From TrEMBL:
Similarity comment text for this entry: Belongs to the bacterial solute-binding protein 2 family.
Domain of life according to the entry: Bacteria
Record's protein name: Sugar ABC transporter substrate-binding protein
Source species of the chain: Streptomyces vulcanius
Sequence ranges assigned to domain Periplasmic binding protein in this UniProt record: 60-303
Signal peptide: 1-29
């Protein structure tokens, strides 16, 4: 395959710096050609403004997503939309176990793909295999998790939000709600994104912040654990969750325990948007997962076909945080219903 080599040095500084808006405009200027496969076409129907006539590429996206999580479905939809537009064959795989995720990256290297998009929730476990990809001349971009290490590990670009900053923003917002005692629920111990969110809340929230670890792969267990905690500590007046499914379970816990606590969360899905409309969830921090998936794949097309670096190769491309609450939920509800917000 005709892959561009990827130096591990910081020589990318000499690359042209291209604004995200300009890069996206360039991407949309392609003319009609074959898309990234039937599945991608169906998922991305109506999402693209044109299709590239550039040579077929193969891109692997490897995430730490658990099975059946709608947040990650949204990331995948964004990736498929970009692949359909850019004449890319997208190979998507996921495993929440870091060692198995590293094996999936190795599989992509063995298949000699043209580019890899990877999440770095546990970056030390992925460091060596990411280096192998780069040594093989395969460009690698990061998304969602790995903001603190993407440059250190030699990635071209990173797409996501600063989790520490988003946590601090949520903590600051809680200061205006009258909350005094927050329970921050982490569904995967050791996940750097999740740990940073709660740490950020604790840093800026003026009240007490307590951490509660739950098993995010078992929703009945999540609900029972949060319910038990609320029953034993009636002073908890705020539950902060780090994902939409966890937030919906926590809202049930509040109801069943008789607690007066409010629920705020990170991340959206269509059920969560409905809960904000109904008032059972206060607000959500939106990091735009569709955009993360879309830009990660699109950036690899831009790099191969025009030598572009999103963010100039030096700065991450931030997709959040933004707050969705009753004041603006109607603006995103229609998109959430389609599974793209």
């Amino acid at each position: 395959m005709n892959r561009m080599s990827l130096p591990r040095s910081r020589s990318r500084r000499i690359a042209p710096v291209v604004a995200v808006a300009a890069a996206t405009a360039l991407t949309l200027a392609g003319c009609s050609s074959s898309s990234g496969g039937k599945k991608a076409e169906e998922s991305a129907a109506g999402a693209s403004a044109g299709k590239a006539d550039t040579p077929r590429m193969t891109v692997a996206m490897v995430t730490h997503a658990p099975s059946g999580d709608t947040f990650w479905d949204t990331i995948r939809k964004g990736a498929e939309a970009a692949a359909a537009k850019d004449n890319i064959k997208l190979i998507y795989s996921n495993d929440e176990t870091a060692a198995d995720q590293a094996s999936l990256v190795q599989n992509a290297i063995d298949q000699k793909v043209d580019g890899i998009a990877v999440t770095l929730a546990k970056p030390d476990a992925l460091k060596d295999v990411v280096a192998k990809a780069e040594q093989a001349g395969i460009p690698v971009v990061g998304l969602n998790a790995g903001l603190d290490v993407w440059k250190e590990q030699g990635l071209l670009s990173f797409f996501g939000q600063d989790e520490a900053v988003s946590g601090q923003a949520l903590g600051t917002k809680l200061n205006g709600t009258g909350a005094k005692n927050a329970l921050c629920v982490i569904q995967a111990q050791g996940d750097v994104n999740l740990e940073q969110r709660c740490a950020g809340v604790k840093k800026t929230f003026g009240g007490k912040t307590e951490i509660l670890y739950v098993n995010g792969t078992d929703m009945p267990s999540v609900k029972s654990t949060v319910t038990a905690k609320l029953k034993t500590d009636s002073s908890i007046d705020e539950v902060v969750t780090l994902g939409a499914p966890i937030a919906l379970a926590a809202a049930q816990s509040v109801s069943e325990s008789g607690s007066k606590a409010k629920v705020a969360t990170f991340d959206l899905n269509k059920e969560l948007v409905s809960a904000i409309e109904k008032g059972t969830i206060q607000f959500a921090v939106d990091q735009q997962p569709y955009l993360q998936g879309y830009l990660a794949v699109d950036s690899l097309w831009l790099y191969k076909n025009n030598g572009n670096y999103m963010g100039g190769g030096e700065q991450p491309v931030l997709t959040g945080p933004a707050f969705v609450d009753k004041s603006n939920v109607d603006a995103v509800a229609a998109f959430a219903a389609k599974g793209t917000r």
